[in-house]
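Supplementary Methods. Inverse-folding protocol.

Structures were first reduced to a discrete structure-token string of length 119. This string, shown here, constituted the complete conditioning input.
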């Protein structure tokens, strides 16, 4: 069982920055990937991006490209989501999740952290 814990959310003004952290309970196998997702009130959950645990290959959603960056520190078992130039529409609960890259899905989820961007 893999456990994930997010932190770093909070209230920030538009144009500001936040860095979210996702601590993974174990060094997942090299074939795993970790993703960031978000869900705003009344909206469906959407993918923000993902990173492979071994090589650090990243994917970012078009809506956040150029503003958000996913990175990882393998030795700290931590994946980061650096969010710059935040907009009110980025307000959501942000989740990290892990899964086997071969399957493409995410089997393990964190509890989420709230990000609120004021205008």
């Amino acid at each position: 069982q893999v456990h994930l814990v997010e932190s770093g959310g909070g209230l920030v003004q538009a144009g500001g920055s936040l860095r979210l952290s996702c601590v993974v309970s174990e060094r997942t196998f090299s074939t795993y990937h970790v993703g960031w997702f978000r869900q705003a009130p009344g909206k469906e959950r959407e993918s923000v991006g993902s990173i492979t645990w071994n090589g650090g290959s990243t994917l970012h959603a078009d809506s956040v490209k150029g503003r958000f960056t996913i990175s990882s520190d393998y030795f700290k078992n931590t994946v980061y989501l650096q969010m710059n130039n935040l907009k009110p529409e980025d307000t959501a609960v942000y989740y990290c999740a892990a899964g086997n890259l071969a399957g493409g899905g995410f089997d393990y989820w964190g509890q989420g952290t709230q990000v609120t961007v004021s205008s």
